[in-house]
Amino acid sequence: MSDDRPSLRWALTVPFTGVPLSEHPELYRRAEALGYDDLWSSETPTGTDGFTPLALAAPVTERLRLVTGIVNPYTRGPAVLAQSAATLQEASGGRFVLGLGASSDVTVERFNGLRFERPLTRMREAVQTLRPVLSVPAERGFGGLRLERPVSKPVPIVLAALRGKMLALAAEAADGAFTNFLPLSGLPRVVASLREGEAAAGRPEGSSELSCRFFILPGDEGEAVGAARQMFTAYGSVPVYASFFRWLGWAEQLDPMVEAYQGGDRRRAAELAPEALIREIFVFGSPDAIKARIEEFLDGGITTAVLSPLAPPERVPELIEALAR
Description:
Layout: E1 9-14, H1 24-33, E2 38-41, H2 52-57, E3 65-68, H3 78-91, E4 96-100, H4 105-110, H5 119-133, E5 157-160, H6 164-173, E6 176-180, H7 187-201, E7 209-218, H8 221-236, H9 239-247, H10 251-262, H11 266-272, H12 275-281, E8 283-285, H13 287-299, E9 304-309, H14 316-322
Parallel strand pairs: 1-2, 1-9, 2-3, 3-4, 4-5, 5-6, 6-7, 7-8, 7-9
């Protein structure tokens, strides 16, 4: 393995579910004091945007890396992405990382009225147009764009990537890949695709960061599986995720659930959600059991573990402390 291999990182997803944003700065300070490495924002169609939680973190932390996980180039044009990235890079003293992803047809088309076309091409073009503007020295970008306040430190870019072609693009054009809802049994294929992309681009093996978000349900596993089932059914029926799980070999177990969900029978879809797959993706149990499980992913090639605890807001402070590595 190359000496350029990224160091292992332990991160948190923000914002914390149910916790008012006005209460987040103190939790960010606590996370930094406990040794966490990053904060990765979670932008959802009906939740917070990907930049504001990180803007709240910038002035109250000194070391934490701040990463959008993710924002997409369909709902934001290159100039908006560039100015937002440069602003957070300046505000954080050079700790910002731009996490870009294609998102999904649901977010782009249904909720924003745009066309979800050629996601691989769109992502390649986004990186190509943003790199010059977010580099040092800065160059003109799309349409002759040059920022009034150029960055003094280049902004790294990571790409949300599920399957082979996007993973290869992340290795070729970006600084790393960010995956989601990854079953442990699928990790070798994801890592292999990233390595193939590095080789094709002439980059050292293992030089790309590979981040993964882990959905954590602390406590009794039997009870938690039910909650995980509902969440998995909604996400696993979205075309981009359904294709991801099929790519990993779960088509036979997954397709009955997807068919029921798309037919409008959500209850039946939840019943048909493959429990074996759910147990491979979600992380259950005590803090020690959770950390041990995530270590298996780190041993398999994940370099940044992005923890996303799913718990009542009053439990968030104790979980931040308990899950510190």
